[in-house]
Design goal:
The chain is an all-alpha fold and 81 residues long. The protein contains six helices and no strands. α1 packs parallel to α3 and α3 (31-43) packs antiparallel against α4.
C-alpha cells in the first residue's frame, strides 16, 4: 500500500501511529503528507505545530495546506472562544 494512503487511513482513524510514520523522514516530497499530519495535530489540539506543518505543505504547493495555514494563523484566537 502506498505511504500516502496508509497515512490517510491512520489520520482518519486518529491513530497515534501517525507520529511514528511521519517521523520516518526529515523532509517529505509530497505536500499532502504535511497537510495530513497537520490535520492530525489539529485534532489533538496542537495548533502551533500544525501551523508549521501546514506552512511546509503550502510551500511545497498544497492548496489545502495553504487554506488551513491561513485559517489557523489569523482565525484561531476567535475559534477558541
Amino acid at each position: 500500500m502506498p505511504l500516502f494512503l496508509w497515512m490517510k487511513i491512520l489520520v482518519r482513524a486518529r491513530d497515534p501511529r501517525v507520529h511514528a510514520l511521519f517521523a520516518e523522514k526529515n523532509e517529505w516530497t509530497l505536500a499532502a503528507i504535511y497537510y495530513l499530519y497537520g490535520f492530525q495535530l489539529v485534532s489533538e489540539g496542537k495548533i502551533e505545530e500544525a501551523r508549521v506543518n501546514f506552512e511546509k505543505g503550502m510551500n511545497k504547493g498544497s492548496l489545502f495546506a495553504e487554506g488551513h495555514y491561513y485559517k489557523y494563523k489569523y482565525r484561531w484566537p476567535m475559534l477558541a472562544n
